[in-house]
Amino acid sequence: MTDYQVLLDSFLSHYEPDATEVSGEADDVSLACFVADTVFHLCHDIPFEFNPSGNSFTSFCSHILSTMNISPSAILVALEYIQRLKANCPTKVNGPDTEYAILVVALMLAHKFQDDNTYSNQSWAVISKLPLAHINMVEVEFLASLDFNLFVSELEYIEWLNCLEQYLNQYESFALQDSFPYHDMDVEDEYLYDAPELYTNEMDLFAYSAPPSPDVDLMNGSYYSQAVGICR
């Protein structure tokens, strides 16, 4: 067994289903919480114990991860892509609600790079409730910021897993202290998150990234025109 597989197994062992659980729901939720906090921390440099997006982004993560059935390896690679994006272009990740589109596009790129049978961008748009035009343009900008290099060597992967293990240990120490107000929340409702206001004062591609409310018609309403207008 390779070093990275040993580390991956070690990392995922934190999420083995509890023997008392009939399903893996609690397991999925804890992984979604960790991913949500890691992405939010990378984007905004906010300590794990403070996440003002709270329930909204965590439930969004849970919905995306469970619906798209992304492999653990692709999830970890997606987090590495976000880390690279932040290192190369820090100003692109710290705008209001940028974490939503960044997470979706990072997962999409990791899945495309690792699997020949991938979901279309349209599928990601439907599941995330982000406009397809926005996802397409963020994807191009994301790739350009990474110099179109999605390859992760075994050494890089091992180093990143070690880094995530440190994040995980810090995360679990906060979780045990009940530092997360949303740690035990019910994320079964995929529409638990609400859409913030459009940030028209920022013309950056990543400026508006949060999904709309479920009753908004993305393709026919004024919302779609506004969102596409911001991306131009």
UniProtKB/TrEMBL annotation:
Going by the entry's taxonomy, the superkingdom of the source organism is recorded as: Eukaryota
Give any GO molecular function from the UniProt entry. protein kinase binding
Spell out the GO cellular component terms annotated for this protein, sorted alphabetically and separated by semicolons.
cyclin-dependent protein kinase holoenzyme complex; nucleus
The record's section on Gene3D superfamilies has:
Cyclin-like (1.10.472.10)
**Protein name as catalogued:** Cyclin N-terminal domain-containing protein
